[in-house]
Amino acid sequence: MRNLILGIVFLFGSYACGQDNSLSIKIEGIKSERGKILYTVFSDNVGFPSDVGKAIQRGLVHIKNGMADIRLDLPNGEYAVMVFHDEDDDNELKTNWFGMPKEGVGNSNNHKGIPSFKKSVFKLVEDKSIMISLWYM
Q1: Is the dihedral of CA 121, 122, 127, 133 positive or negative?
Q2: Which of 92, 99, 122, 133 has the fewest CB atoms within 10 Å, i.e. is most exposed?
Q3: What whole-number distance in Å separates Cα of residue 40 and Cα of residue 80?
């Protein structure tokens, strides 16, 4: 009987550890409702921020009433999120000849300047909500 109880406890404990957490991301500071918001989620610095092929998740959301919401399910871990406002709907971030963005951009810790994984990373160990503010050059 004792082994049965221990087995059940272990089974439920393993199930709880393997469950994903809900990450809710609200995007604010969107200057127009043209286009869409594209996002990438990275679990390490490899490829961050621009190699979307190295992102563990990527997608798009539509803008409504000047806001956009992203909902993801992710396991415990460290993540960094990059977003940009694809105003012209071409699925690419427009940049000037210096490489500076011409469309709104943002990241998971809302730092401005050259994005890095170290400055954008956060821990996800339970359901979490974050706000990302876009900035435009």
Answers
A1: negative
A2: 99
A3: 8
